[in-house]
Every structure is written in structure tokens, then in C-alpha cells.
């Protein structure tokens, strides 16, 4: 058993910009967001994951304000490929010109000369992954980004990429319900790849904070997003209740699972309140809790 190591956590910052629309989880004003980021930093969290679609640029802007006085002390992760039209409609494209433009915009929003890790956010079946990666490789040579990664990727794109470009990071979902790295670890040598797992608590389901009757604010993407409405989130909630009825603590099991995967370098956790951060400190990381949860949710 061990206490949580905050330096291993990546702060998922979709939660700090919900009022900007796009991918977000409810209103949180500028000062509250800043206070939350500072509190996380004081507790030892130094990695912050964002993307343009998080708050439609607002998350990156708030990250930029936060890192202004501590740029050399933190790592910033962002992405390109998920954009939006002037009417707010989401657009997904890995066309090189889109990736180049989005990188420039992210650097400007965060008022930084470089981004520590920059990902292709999602695969685009219409674009060979090597074309946008060529754009990022040139940006890396210009020191606009320090490392290149693929997010929510697949074996085909990874195989194409690593034959031509220095891919050092992979990001994907990793939790008790869905662990993409479990399969990837059997097909790839991940020893030299930094793996970052999002969805540690599956948007609150594995934290016990989402129930079938919960109502979401209009600025929370769970109130309107088609992908959420079409998901089996209510069935997942029922499964969590069944797990808890057996005397198990879902939050401890979920965090223990992410922390004890040998193939996962960093879990990404969406943090929305100071209390949420404090609660993490009281969770004991235990391989036995992880195994119990894994057995139950994968039976």
C-alpha cells in the first residue's frame, strides 16, 4: 500500500473552462480556475493536460495565465485536430494546414514559446498520420514543441508513425471499464514510450459522483453531447452501485487500478475543486484493490 504521489498525476484541465463551451464540465470562473491550478501546483502536480476544444480555447488561455510565472517548473500538454466552426460546431481534421494553424493558436493562447508535449488528438481516417506528423516534426526542430505524441490512436497509425518520426508519447483511455494500453502493451514495446491514461474515473462514474438521476448543467458537455447520450453511462453507474454494495470502495479501486498499471506512466485526472484534490490524498493505493476492481468489471 502507498499514498498517492501527486507528481505522477496529470491535471486534466477540461474541468476549468466549461463556460467556454466545447468539451467542459460546468461553469467555473477565471479566479476559481486559477486558484485551483495554483492549489494543485502547491500539492506537487506539475503536468497539465489541455486541448483547444476544452472550453473552445478558454482552458488554454487559463493555463497560459497560470504558467506565466512558472513556465520552467511545469509541463504543458496540448493537442490539435479537434477544431470548431464559427457556429460552435465541432470539426475534426488532421490535415497538415489545420494542425499547423492549431499549434500556432495554442502557443498564442498560452503565451508560451513552446509546448512540452503536443498530440494529434484523434485519428482521421481521411489523412495519413505521417502528413500531420511531418508538420509537428518540423515544429519540434524549431523548438516550438519538445515531444510528439498520438492520442486515442491505433496500431496502424502507431506503426506508420514510428517508422518515420520520434513518437515518444501515447495518450488513451485507461480505467476499470476500458484500458486501451492493456492491448497495446501486448503488441508494442512501451518501455520507451511515455503513456498517459485519461478517464481514470470515467467522467465521474468511477468516482461515484455520477448517478443515473444526476442532472448536468448546460455548460457541462454531459448535458448535451451526443457521444455521452449514446454511451452506456447509466448501465455503468448501475454496475458501480453493484460493486459498492459488495463493500468495495469504487474510488480507491479506480485510482489503484490506474496507479498500478506497469505500462501506464501517468494517470490523467480531471480536477474541479480543492476538496477533490484533498480527497485524493486520503486514498490508499493498493494492488489488491486494483485486482478486485479489475476482476469485477471485466468478468
Molecular structure report:
The structure is a single chain. The protein is α/β, with parallel strands linked by helices. It has a single domain (6-297), classed as Alpha-Beta Barrel (TIM Barrel), CATH 3.20.20. Helix content is 37%, strand content 16%. It has eleven helices and ten strands. The chain has helices at 30-42, 58-67, 96-109, 130-141, 155-162, 180-187, 226-229, 233-245, 250-259, 274-281, 287-297; strands at residues 10-12, 47-49, 75-80, 82-84, 90-92, 115-120, 145-151, 167-173, 194-198, 266-270. It has an eight-stranded parallel β-barrel. A two-stranded antiparallel sheet has the order 4-5. Helix 1 links the parallel strand 1 and strand 2 (47-49). The longest helix has 14 residues, at 96-109. 41% of the residues are buried. The mean pLDDT is 95.
Record keyword descriptors for this entry:
single chain, 299 residues, alpha/beta, TIM Barrel, 11 helices, 37% helix, 16% strand, globular
Order of the strands making up the biggest sheet: 1-2-3-6-7-8-9-10
**Overall outline:** globular
Low-confidence stretches: none
Helix count from the secondary structure assignment? 11
Mean pLDDT: 95
Radius of gyration: 18 Å
Overall domain count: 1
> How much strand?
15-25%
Structural class: alpha/beta
CATH class bucket:
Alpha Beta
> CATH superfamily, please?
NADP-dependent oxidoreductase domain
> What's the CATH architecture?
Alpha-Beta Barrel
The sequence of SSEs as H and E is EHEHEEEHEHEHEHEHHHEHH
Total beta strand runs: 10
Amino acid at each position: 500500500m502507498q499514498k498517492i504521489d501527486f507528481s505522477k498525476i496529470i491535471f486534466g484541465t477540461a474541468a476549468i473552462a466549461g463556460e467556454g463551451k466545447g468539451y467542459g464540465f460546468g461553469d467555473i470562473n477565471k479566479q476559481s480556475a486559477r486558484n485551483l491550478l495554483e492549489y494543485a501546483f502547491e500539492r506537487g502536480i506539475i503536468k497539465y493536460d489541455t486541448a483547444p476544444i476544452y472550453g473552445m480555447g478558454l482552458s488554454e488561455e487559463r493555463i497560459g495565465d497560470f504558467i506565466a510565472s512558472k513556465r520552467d517548473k511545469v509541463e504543458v500538454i496540448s493537442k490539435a485536430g479537434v477544431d470548431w466552426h464559427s457556429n460552435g460546431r465541432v470539426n475534426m481534421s488532421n490535415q497538415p494546414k489545420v494542425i499547423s494553424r492549431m499549434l500556432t493558436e495554442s502557443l498564442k493562447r498560452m503565451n508560451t514559446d513552446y509546448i512540452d508535449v503536443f498530440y494529434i488528438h484523434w485519428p482521421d481516417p481521411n489523412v495519413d498520420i505521417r502528413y500531420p506528423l511531418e508538420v509537428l516534426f518540423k515544429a519540434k526542430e524549431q523548438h516550438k514543441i519538445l515531444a510528439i505524441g498520438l492520442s486515442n490512436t491505433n496500431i496502424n497509425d502507431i506503426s506508420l508513425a514510428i517508422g518515420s518520426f520520434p513518437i515518444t508519447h501515447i495518450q488513451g483511455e485507461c480505467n476499470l471499464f476500458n484500458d486501451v494500453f492493456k492491448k497495446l502493451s501486448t503488441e508494442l514495446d512501451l518501455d520507451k514510450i511515455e503513456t498517459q491514461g485519461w478517464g481514470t474515473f470515467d467522467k465521474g462514474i468511477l468516482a461515484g459522483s455520477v448517478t443515473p438521476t444526476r442532472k448536468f448543467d448546460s455548460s457541462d458537455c454531459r448535458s448535451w453531447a451526443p457521444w455521452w447520450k449514446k454511451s452506456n453511462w447509466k448501465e455503468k453507474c448501475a454496475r458501480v452501485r453493484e460493486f459498492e454494495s459488495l463493500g468495495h470502495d469504487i474510488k480507491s479501486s479506480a485510482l489503484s487500478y490506474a496507479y498500478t498499471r506497469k505500462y501506464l506512466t501517468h494517470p490523467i485526472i480531471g480536477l474541479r475543486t480543492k476538496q477533490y484534490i484533498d480527497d485524493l490524498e486520503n486514498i490508499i493505493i493498493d494492488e489488491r484493490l486494483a485486482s478486485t476492481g479489475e476482476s469485477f468489471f471485466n468478468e
